[in-house]
Amino acid sequence: MSIVALKNVSRIYESGGRKVYALNKVSFTVEEGEFTVILGPSGAGKSTLLNILGGIDKADEGEVKISGQDIAALNEKEMSGYRAERVGFVFQFYNLIPTLTVRENVALMKELKRDAVSPDEALAKVGLRGHGRKFPDQLSGGEQQRVSIARAIAKNPDLLLCDEPTGALDSETGCMVLSELRRLCKEEGCTTLIVTHNANLAKAADRIVRVKNGRIVENLVNEHPVSIEEVEW
User: Fold this and answer.
1) Selection from 24, 197, 36, 188 nearest residue 121 by Cα
2) Stated pTM of the model
3) 33-60+75-230: CATH, from 3.40.50.300, 3.40.50.11060, 3.40.50.970, 3.40.640.10
4) pLDDT (tens digit, 9 = 90+) per residue, 209-226?
């Protein structure tokens, strides 16, 4: 069974008395443990798609099944539980709380999920052992993004959803962060979906989903993914 299975999913907005489709009858699947890259130009519907998978936004039509459960049918309370228990988010801007230490930022996940991984263990997984007492502004951009990844994986999520996670980083640091994400996907078995406009990253993906004008124009398995380090930036 696919961990992600969308069928005829649409997200519709009203503009000037007419319907505008952010997503239009979208159908695709992702298998458990896949490192998936979602590609497309600005305004294509990539972030809307990610937000629907994460329970931040809701589809107007269609089925959104995660591990067989149609989250499009959940009520608000159930959706809140889904976000807290089953999804980890990594955004372009790190969204760390500047007045909390690195360890305290990661420890916030304990308030969402009782059996969350300890902050020290999560930080160790992203190569930041010993940085827990620092504050975010004492870290580089790449280190801050790794803290946000540690915070996301502390929940042991079914899905790790990343929206332009290297958009605020230089190419060398971005490469390090993406290598970390791919390593965690493979070693921890956490299905990872990354929204990006960087088409070269597709070479390192297990699955490539291309979005254009709110539609899926390609969903293919990459039989020979390369390492992140081999990707041309």
Assistant:
1) 188
2) 0.87
3) 3.40.50.300
4) 999 999 999 999 999 988
Q: Give the up-direction half-sphere exposure of residue 1: CA atoms within 13 A in the CB hemisphere.
A: 6
Q: Are 193 and 41 in contact (CB under 8 A)?
A: no
Where do the structural domains in the chain lie, given as residue ranges?
Answer: 33-60+75-230
Q: Within a 10 A sphere around the Cβ of 219, how many other Cβ atoms? A: 17
Residue with tokens 């504050």: 135
CA distances from 61 to 1, 16, 23, 68, 70 (A): 22, 21, 10, 17, 12
Distance CA 30, CA 24 (A): 19
- Alpha-carbon gap, residue 140 to 173, rounded angstroms: 9
**130: CB partners within 8 A, 6+ apart:** none
Sign of the dihedral defined by the CA atoms of residues 195, 68, 2, 147, in that order: positive
Longest CA–CA span in the chain (Å) reads 56
Q: Are 123 and 151 contacting, i.e. CB atoms less than 8 angstroms apart? A: no
- Cα–Cα distance, 111 to 42 (Å, whole number): 35
3-state secondary structure 63-89: EEEECCEEHHHCCHHHHHHHHHHHEEE
Q: How confident is the model at residue 51 (pLDDT cuts 50, 70, 90)?
A: very high
Q: According to the model, what pLDDT value does residue 29 have? A: 92
Quick check: 207 and 195 in contact, CB under 8 A?
no
Token code pair at residue 13: 């907005």
